[in-house]
Structures
1.
Amino acid sequence: MSDDIAVGIDLGTSYSAVAAVAEAGGSPQVLPNEWGERTHASCVSFLDDGSVLVGNNAKKNIITNAENTIYSAKRLIGRFYFSDEVKKAQAVMPYRIVEGPNNSVRLQVKEKVLAVPEVSALVLKEMKAIAETALGREVRKAVVTCPAYFNDNQRQATKDAGRIAGLDVLRIINEPTAAALAYGFGKDISQKICVYDLGGGTFDVSILEIGKDVFEVLSTAGDTYLGGDDFDDRIMTWLADDFLAKYGLDLRQNKFCLQMLKEAGERAKIEVGRDGVAEILVPGICQSPEGEVIDLRQKLVQDQFNRMVMDLVQRTFKVCDEALQSARLTAGDVDAVILVGGPTRLPIVRNSVRHYFQREPMTGIDPDEVVSLGAAIQAHALLNTQAAEYGQASYLLDVTPLSLRVGTVGGFTEKIIDKNTPIPIEKSKTFTTSRDGQDRVKIRVYQGESNRADACELLGEFEFTGFRIGYRGEVQIQVTFEIDSNGIVNVSATDVETGQKTSTTINLSSGLSEDDIQTAMIHNADIELARGGRAA
Amino acid sequence: MDSQFQIEVESLAAALDQLDYFGVLKIPQTATPPEIKAAYYRESRAYHPDRFAAYPDEAFRELVGRIYRRVNEAYTVLRDDKKRAKYVQDVTGPERAQKLRFTEAGEAQVKEEQKRKLEEQLGMTPNGRKFYAAALIELEAERWEGAQRALKSALMYEPSNGRFKEALAQVEKELEKNRNKGDQFRIK
């Protein structure tokens, strides 16, 4: 057992990181790649020779090889093709987003069509390779993190991505929970803490109570449509509108210009946060109809930037309100605030958080690395049977972020498991047949907070067969809904009278079938990771 | 993993369906919320599935999982004052054996109870509520005829509403009293 190793991987929207506890009882360390980089762009570039470039080098290709370079795939993972997020991505992403079976999302690169988890799997493959180089040994097991507010489809897809990358995914854990673990592990504290996690594409808040080695999540809330990318978008819009007014050319019409604009926006955001002012210069961003090459030149100051993004920052506090309310606490009850994610480096975010909680956020925690460190601690704990014996134990008591529901007649739903219920949990419900001689029962399972089915996320349609056949209302089927420690939903059913387990098939799910995963695994193993030069 | 713990897990898993939630968390029915939380932490330290994640015996892991899911279920019900009250009523009643687990029926009952209380107070239809509210104002001002009219109207919309009927009966009693007084006055 002890010669085995498991790593923790923070699979982010924009950046990913990998960490490990290299020796029993040691502290977790972020594993750098061969150039010393500790975070890696979640960016996958398909090269002409059939190999794949992942990480910060691939990020440069967003401009030079736009159509074959995929980034922010996490925004699409586990989503349906008709969702707003996918429509939005189609408008701005240079790569092709196409429809797959069962309303799923596929990405087309050259003539290849890939499922989103296959792309994430390539990022994970790179993380695995980095870990193997850094540790000098094979790595086959990992804990992978996902936003706390991810639904079942998104978690399942994340887990699939891990399997495709050839990893045994020991656990999917929530990013804020991982951060809390990294903060409180081995410290012997009893506190109520708030994790404010503003990532590249998602925002999560978790309120936890730490009682020495127990990490109880009291509540979690989030917005999977809010992140640092939205801050970049604001700067882009401002730059593009300004350019339009000056030259009468709309940079957003051309996907190539749009990428340069996006890069400029991201850089400006970082500079303005660090230095208070950003000089934006993109030489030769486009050509006028007369053939004149035009540069993009602008200056962004702090105040102006703050005004642009104030409403986004305010939105995060609505989510904080919701989380505190579910935990039955007020902002004043929180003993410590932990900031996670790159955008929390921005002064406007820090100041607003300080103002909201009336407390200085914790310093000395690297917002880019803390999640992977927590994942590494958990990975190490899951491998060790004797952790409890040498005082290394920690118990994560996490919750489900969304209510679990079943569809009823007329497009309505009924709640089965409340949000913020501790997991793992199970709950049963009895269904009866509605027709004489009925041989199958179908139920649709949803997640969400609305009692209308169309406002919730469909997880799938479960069809039960193989129970006793009788008159209507005579046959009772007990359906058990289980949410496991990963936050993934399992549904099974038994005939109440005979106790016979019925067989279950899942329809209408956007996820990958077992066959799809097997094929993807072979495919993934064949793809070679390119080692480019060091990113500038 | 000592064998004593293994035996403990096996016997607890076997007895799970005979235990109520207080038994699962090993606390008395009078436990206070902090005691419930402390018990939850204690049981989590003992039966958290992560502790046994690397344990090779899958059947044993499944048993631990079963116990821990029940621990979570118990905590979810007992930490909620309303659910706890309903649950205590269930397990101290005659149908204890069937009600050891807080069911959807129980949950629906809690909700139904709240809804019914609200409806009883205010009426179940918009018009019923409107007339009942009007009747209350009339009652407050002791205008009995007005109250009677309003209540009769409310009862047209909700003929079986007990509260409305009760109020009407009272109003009619008052009216009767007044009429008697009036008659007496006239005779005099």
Note: The first strand of chain A starts at residue 6 and ends at 10.
2.
Amino acid sequence: MAQLMTLTDAVAELVGDGDSVALEGFTHLIPFAAGHEIIRQGRRELELIRMTPDLLYDQMIGMGVARRLVFSYGGNPGVGSLHRFRDAIENGWPQPIEIEEHSHAGMANRYAAGASDMPCAIMRGYVGTDLVAHTTVAHVTCPFTGEQLVAVPALRPEVAIVHAQEADRDGNVQLWGIPGVQKEAVLAAERSLVTVERIVDELELRPGGIVIPGWVISAVAEAPGGSRPSYSLGVTERGNDFYKFWDKMSRDRDEFTDWMNENVLGKEEVSTR
Amino acid sequence: MSVTAPEITAGETQTVVAARRLRHTRTVFIGVGRPSTAALLARMVHNPELVLVYESGTIGAKPFHIPLSIGDGELAETADSIVSVPEMFNYWIGAGRIDVAFLGAAQIDPYANLNSTVIGDYAHPKTRLPGAGGAPEIAASCGEVIVIAPHAKRTLVEKLDFVTTVGHGEGPGSRERLGFRGRGPTAVITDLGVLEPDPETKRLVLTQIHPGVDVDQVREQTGWELEVADELQVTELPTAEELASLRELLER
């Protein structure tokens, strides 16, 4: 059964230096508060896994948290480049970063295989592209039809962290809106942390809501507003202006560092539970 | 009724031309930016039943505003169905349930193969681009692909720095050999005109130019020796309705 913890304690207990960590949330429900806590606790040498690194991994990469990045789309959605991600790959700042990149279909299937405890996923894709020479993908033949397909290895992060709208006191979690690969990430990982907007006495089941039972989650921490500047449908709105602001501000290393010092390192984690 | 050419920007014409391509389409897969604007315009003017599919898992989204990201709240709130990312790529895209996909790219070659990964060497890139996202499997499996890009020599190049997404591969028979179910790129819509693959060679041919553009200008901005169709069409000017709707949409 998931333990209710403070965000500070949960990150300290679940995330260690050198771990492979997946903070998921596809545009929606990105666990910014948890990522910021990882930065504040000074974790290093992480293998960061995420389909769309988004501003959160741009911040974590720029703060020197990551040794390796596994991803499928490293852009600022609808805005342009992720400048810290680019600076790390193009110039090795603040430190060189190893990358492994896939397509979205590949990453999604890798998570689904991890959640299923399968060693790999079988799919159509990658063929004919230069990705094949630069990533982990193999050709396989369907034993029934002879069709040429590809296999991608399962993702099994040591830690998965996702954000959701609410949890009850037993750590059962409900999220709604765009579900991304949150459930797959939690089920694929050895340990998991779910941050939530609020803890409630009883989950009120919603049409289209996804419930992740507390007994597959390691820890739940309350973190109101914890997905900002992403959003939690029905609770907070996406900070589109912030995504545009980030594009301008984060181009400069010093401006970025100052901003992070003031807005992330200088802030206490606010969760009270 | 048409309005006079000078008032209309090249970008507006490009969006209007893309929207017209969706007149008889049931389902369209779109990313953000101009493709999203074009699809919303198509729903307003040409095809109110058009089903918009975004890779965030929102199927049948009906946003009033042009979304900034593919996962804006309005897409989720107005969708007919919301699915997980694995479901989106396996059940909907991979299974060939989407008719048309709009894609963009930093580089496009004469066979409409696309690069959105790196400019320069992969290990030491001059410019690191976002990467594949959904594009390789979208281009493999959707019914057809329409590429929307600015017309510039650095975009339309003879050879890609990296093949992120296969269009027509190395020419006739490539897609069949790779086992792709979709027909691949049927048009590249730029701010100067429209290129379409030759039915025999699969190489892109200029088939349409926008009003006020001349062929030499298009040649100048194309990084390979451009072939021009014998019966080159001139784009019909945006109608007053198309233009008014587009401008209203952008102002919302």
Note: The radius of gyration of chain B is 18 Å.
3.
Amino acid sequence: MKLVRHVLARVGFYVLAALFAALFALPLLWLLFAPFSAKANLAVALPDPFTFSNFGKVFANSFAVRALFQNSVIQAVGAMVLVTLLATLAAYALSRAPIRGRDALSYGLVLFSSIVTGTAAMVPLFLLIFQLGLIDTHVGVILVFTGGLLPAAIFIMRDFVDSIPRSYEESALVAGASPWGMFRDIALPIVRPGMMVVGVWTFVNVWGGFLVPFILLRSPSKMPAAVAIYSFYTEGGTPIITLTTAYALLYTLPVLALYLFVNWKYGFRFFGGIKS
Amino acid sequence: MANVTFASITKQFGTVKAVDDVSFELADGEFVCLLGPSGCGKTTTLRMIAGLEQPTSGRISIGGEDVTDAKPKERDIGMVFQDYALFPHMTIEANIAYPLKVRGVGARERAARAAEVAASLQIDQLLARRPGQISGGQQQRTSLARAVVHKPRVYLFDEPLSNLDAKLRLEARSFLKHLQRELGVTSIYVTHDQAEAMALADRVAVMDKGRIVQIGPPLEVYHRPATTFVANFLGSPPMNLLPVRLEGDAFHAGPLRVDARGFADRLRGVAEGSELTLGLRPEHLRLGGEGDEWTVPGHVYAVEPLGPESLVTLRVGEGLVTARLFGDEAPQVTGDARFAFDPKNLHLFGADGRRIQVP
């Protein structure tokens, strides 16, 4: 009796686990299979008949190709570089300089940036960018993303910087390093895992961001992939599943590649701390 | 190599005076220990010499040159930190060579000099490793190597041995003393361990509440402590301090009565009825009998055999008095007992805690 109950409990657990796994796996499987199928629908099915022709059609759409391989890259990389650089410097200053109420400042930053969502701020942001004359420019998009992501990025970076014992920096100074040399030789290499996390996180956010470029950009030649994917919809507004999934698959590859590269090269850590 | 002058230095953090009008001078090649409990200002003093803190007032000079406002890198010093502060992302070799690198020394010479210093500290087989892969003692030597590789004028040590275990600490202490004698570089060493200070220093500066209470050669500070604070801080176990009152020709404290007639020259000018403190080093006490003239009677509180010596503690009135008795056998004492001492070993301190001595 006890054994039966034990077995039933195990079986129940695995069934439940399998259901959850399926919930997450099915959309991914669909994304993997549908692009290679000549006539895909919303069901997950092995490609039949199998074809690469969907990718051919996607690459024939020069607007979408340019969006993915040029505009998205410019905007995501631009914001990634800017956010990582500024967040590192700001976090370093917030961690080290004797600023009164710096903890309150850091928490306030995160709080505000998470409460005031991008959507709610869109109208004032549009007006701001309009007055700056940056409507329909990559710079405008990059700046808005940078402003939105920077507070949380600073918060993440501060944790990394706070975890460096000050004696590291002091011993570099006493050894004869200039403040900048100390930052470059000691602080920067130690917080590099944090910079990688912030960099990838920024990249992913901008790469997948739809609203900001959709509102701030005008010319099709500057639209990123998140917007350009709509060029695979019919006039009536329904997606052509074979083409949208083919494009979507291409769209996910750079993020995947970036993640794998960073993980291989530096290893991911979502917290500070030095293993010495 | 250089002398170091510290002229009426005060350092204030907000309303707290961490260092309060401290002046001292180190001769070229001298080894001075700053000794005191935590929070006494000794580390702040060291950090001001390193240039990591700015004094609120006063001047610091190294080698006759005023460095009060100079940056750390302009001071030409080598410093060993309590946590060693080795750079975790660099190899041992890169750590040791870092002071040379920032001075623009070429890669080949850097490697050669790092190897030379590492060999003299017996860590040359570790050069390719990282700080996380070597032991605490090896890290300590690496940080020492990094402090000496560029041949600085002054060495600063901030409790460099306190993170080592007891056995390693003794070994490292002998090694440090040997090294300092060999190199003959002016050194300032901060510690809260009185044995370390005694063993290493040419002179010990005992600090309390931001001030230097006494500065002098270790044995002088040990044998002639200027205040009860110094008397209590040096020695292990520390000096026994007995609060007494001078009445007639004896010191009284409850049932304790110590004849004061032998101290007439020291007690000149001390008023009848004054509150005084008697000080007796544990090693100056022995078990006494009825026949001894100078004794401290009490009740046995504890007997601790330590091998070559034993600690015997008596409860005397309200307080405890400990004696270090030398000999391989633990003394068999129970119940009432008395310690005898030679009056020349008795220290006298006034009501203000200052030593009373023959004028």
Note: The radius of gyration of chain A is 24 Å.
